[in-house]
Amino acid sequence: MNRDLFLSCVADPTRHVLLQELRAGDRCVNDLVEATGHSQSNVSHHLKQLRDCGIVAYERVGKENRYRLAHAAVADVLAAVDAAAKHLPDCEACP
Description:
Layout: H1 3-11, H2 13-23, E1 27-28, H3 29-36, H4 40-52, E2 56-61, E3 64-69, H5 72-86
Antiparallel strand pairs: 1-3, 2-3
């Protein structure tokens, strides 16, 4: 995947929250809806985008889909971004 496309995918605020939730372990859509406060259709839309890019994967378990990060490297990148952000000042120049 192109680096810029990856960064664009994970920078979206809703997708970022979803990915942070998935860093903690696999989740069903209902868990992610509760965590984000967004509608089920909105969360499903973002999960499909992340799935299409290969960032998340899912497994059908009974009647629900359980989502997870597709690669440990994604969790590593998210952790590195969080660590770096803690050391940087707030900036209005980059919305």
